[in-house]
Every structure is written in structure tokens, then in C-alpha cells.
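Chapter summary example.
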Amino acid sequence: MSPRDRVAAIEEEARQQALEAGLQALTHRSLATRLGVSHSLIVHYISDLEEFRAQTYSKLILAELSSIERAVAPVPTGIGKLVELVRLLSVTGREETASLWLDGWTIGRLNALMAAEVRSAMHAWQDFIEELLSAGVHAGEFEIDDVSGCAWEIIALFDGLNSHMLVAFGAPNEYKLRMAAPIESRLGLQPGTLTSATKFKGEDRS
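The structure predicted for these 206 residues follows.
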């Protein structure tokens, strides 16, 4: 196996392990065991484990953001984009990615490299939500005068849901409603705007 292919294999295995067992479980020895190679071989290719963990975190978190950006991009209105965003982030099945956020915050408390990657990911989400809200304000869909602050609040809501989701706190079938209600209030929307049945690309979604 070429060095490039070896690194790619290690990185792919690291992403899988991070999702399955958490970033804290990602070590030289755990990767060696999963790949069936020697500990020294992993150390040869991944000399700085803290940096590698931070990079693994960033790639996984930003991959989800890219996926969500692609999902909402075709939606023609700001309200429609928010409907889709709330739907995507309020469904169970996101536990692996949700756990990565918590891993990042926990590790980042004492690790400057991880903290920097977490802040970078949070800034990327902030930019994404700000752009969505700004377009909605310009189109007359949202009534807000502090786009940046509103984006921060929306992100904080979903951060909280990530924690609740991991321990199955609350009723999963109510997650969407609980996220939508404060967002609707903040944006001057009628209750139910973000949770009512919405037609998108020929499908009925609720």
C-alpha cells in the first residue's frame, strides 16, 4: 500500500471510530487494532494525535454542514429553507454527529487545537445561518434587526437539542415543534409556520 493510500485508510478508519465510539476513543493503539497493523506504523503516519483528532472532528462536522447546505439550497424561500433545516436537525438518527459536537466541546476545554477547530466549525454554522436569515429579511419574510444575534440563538437551540437527543430526553416526535416554536417567535412568524405540512420538490413533508 502506498503512503498516500495508507494515510487515506487511517483517516477513514478514524472517522468511523469517532462516529461509533467518540473522539476520546481515538488513539494510536485503537487505530492499529481496527486496521490490523502495528502501533508503530500508525505512529509513523500520525505523529501528533491531538492534531489528528482535531482534524478528524473538523472533517466530520463540516461534512454534515455541507450536506445540509446542499439540501436547503434548492428551496426557493427563506421560510422554506428554515422548514427544511428544522426538519433535518430535529430528527433522530443524528446521534453520532451530535455526539461529536459534545466531544469537541469537552476536549476543547483543555486542548487548544480542538478548541480552535470547534470555533471554526461554529463560525461556519454562524455564517450559514446568517446568510439564510439575511436573504429572508431582504425578501420581507423575517422581522429581525439583529441577524447575527438571531443566528447565534438558533444555533444555541440546536446545540441544546444535540444534548437532549443523545440521552433521549423528551419526546423525539416533539423535537421539531420545540425547535420551531422559539424560532417562529424570534422571526415574527405565525405559530406552526415551520412545522406545517410543506410541499417541496413534489413531496409532502411535515
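To summarize the output: Confidence is low (pLDDT under 50) at residues 198-206.
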